[in-house]
Write a structure and sequence with these properties.
With 424 residues, this protein is mainly beta. The protein contains six helices and 26 strands. It comes from Shewanella electrodiphila.
Length: 424
Amino acid sequence: MTPLQSFTAAANTQEGKTLFETTCASCHGKKLTGGAGFNLKDEMWVHGSKPEQILANIKAGFSQAGMPAFAAIYSDQQLASIVEYILSQREGLDNLTYKTYHIDSNAPQSFEIIDNLPIKKSGSLATNLMDFSLPEVKDYIIEFEADLYGPKDKAGQIFSMTHKEFFEIEIDGKRVEPSMTDWLRWAWPIKQGKQKIKIRYTTIGTKQRSDKRFKMFVMNGELTEKIFGITVSGKQYLNQATFNITPDNKDEVVRKKIVKLPTSSIAVGTPLNINYAFNPKTCSFVGVWSGNFLNVGPNIEGRGRDGSLIGGDWLFHMPAQIKPLVTDTTPCEFIQYHRSGNTSFTYRLGHQQYRVEAIAQDRSSLLLNYTLLSGQNGNLQISLPTSDKFKISTKQGEITDNLFSVNAKVGQSYQVLLSASENN
Ligand code: HEC
């Protein structure tokens, strides 16, 4: 008997849940959906999905990747409880296998014909995601079998964005009829928890072939919530899901990797729908966009560490920036940012200390208010981007050759205004 089997009787899912939440959730997420550590409830297991593999991985840890070894920390019984709990949370496919059959282009749209056909190809797919496309063959039937872990606390349905005639689904050996059929949307009810699933697809009757047609995923019974993908394109589709951050009555400050911006950036969304990012390493504004703030979906889904996407349109982004001129003797040194009222950033430039406050005027303009807080009076110089998407103006000082320059006095403020062009 494996250690796990010998302790399964003693393993206690509730105890496993408590241990998981105190020790593992910080990296793997309270809902097991991942963070610094991998997602532990989906179909993808990088180091093995079998209970004894999971147990061995928890015991040994992954020191290179930052996960400690737990063999010496927990008793075998406690470790078995953690594994039980992880397995109880599982969703998606496992042990996925396939068979393909080549058919005649004038074959009937029926799956009975495969009884008399040789299997062309068969195998298992470690990705645990179905893929109905077979680019090298024109007409074929493909059949998948797998263990399907449905949502265990609610009813679920397989949802497909393809026409159903081409599919046939069996759950635990019984044919399932669709509960919903309308133009290009079909849904088949599944059971809760673990079950066997078989899905067959035929190209007969298909007009247009593209993987995108095979978006298939599990939703809740009411078809209001997308839960997990069962095909490659279904999973990709869910990964693009949007998790919009929308500031309502005050600035939202977010520190996340954003596509096109340096990782150190601090992104700020304003309720007036003009948004910007400040890079503390250079004390500069590295991007400004109008419209929705951020979609952090790609950043929090699964194990992908993809950058968040801006929700609107760029006015500019790196390498263009609004940046104080620094020299070797006067590098910029970021001090802090303030979140009360309009978000502001304080930094030191040589002997001078500045604060820059970004104030949304309306959906298309952002006022940057620079104040020399302390130090000596002296030249404030800010290099500016150019584009026909916006114009930059000032009431004090002057702008020449994309450089705003003014003789700054301690305690005084100086403004540059960035306004999107009319036709933007
Ligand atoms: C400090 C962060 C951290 C903690 C705490 C942590 N893990 Fe991990 N875990 C990781 C990382 C990172 C990986 C990915 C290893 C790699 O890159 O191969 C991982 C991988 C795993 C895997 C392998 C997943 C796969 O896809 O095969 C399992 C299982 C796992 N952890 C379980 C646990 C359990 C159970 C606990 C608590 C007892 C725990 N981890 C605590 C960071 C952590």
